[in-house]
Amino acid sequence: MYKETQEVNISTVDEPLGLFPKDVAIKPFLKWAGGKTQLLTELHKHVPNSFNKYIEPFIGGGAMFFSLNPYESIIADSNEELVITYRQIKNAVESVIEHLETFEHNEEFYYNIRSLNTNELEDSFRAARLIYLNKTCFNGLYRVNKKGQFNVPYGKGNGNFLNKEVLRNANEFLAETTIINGDYLDVLNEFAAEGDFIFLDPPYYPVGKYSDFKRYTKEFFYHDNQVQLKQEFDRLVNIGCKVVLTNSDHEVILDLYSDYKIEIIETRRMISSNSKTRKGKDIIVVGGYD
Length: 290
Description:
The chain is of the alpha/beta class. It is 32% helix and 16% strand. The chain has ten helices and eight strands. An eight-stranded mixed beta sheet has the order 1-7-8-6-5-2-3-4, sandwiched between helices. It is globular and about 55 Å long. Residues 1-5, 10-23, 212-216 and 269-278 have low confidence and may be disordered.
């Protein structure tokens, strides 16, 4: 699977790590499939000592972003619901909290909230709805159908869906952050420049029967998209950015990035309902470093 000339390091991460010191960073306010909390120790090894902008165009739950406390940052995603939620936490967190205070953690309420047409909702309620569904659905999984409708069943746990402190901390953290709803290529072409630090966490290339290659938006991320992403990775390196990318340990991805330093990390898939399938390997690709 690995080329003889490839620089590959292999290590293991058994459990998610508590890497959010209060004076530096905060915990994400959403749980997201493919979240990077347990990879932070390895990812932080590649954070430049200094950089201009931090750009993360596949923001998801934002574990890396929230762990860094970057001075100037741009975050983006193609998931409109997710971006609206980030913007509302930034601009109207108290309204989001007020809505969440009226919500109930029971099955009937859950399915009523899930069935709402998001286009008919005011944005702060829309954000509260996503946070509520994220915290009360089965295993914290975000998944939509081909129409873009959230379709995860109710979770039976008794977890708290409203943590005011976490939301208010995120509000302060996002104060100077630019938040964009758009395709990652458009974002990078417009904003990326020499001296920037780019973190790319795209939908992973599917591996095996139990792949956690989930539908985060109504569009898929296909093989051709992965090839296009590699081309963008090259462009970013060539213009003088430092770039870190995560993906699955698949021979296609390893071959695509064979000219770069690659680390392979054994991880646990906390989103899986079957403990036997909660194991996998992530790769970290690093480009633009001397």
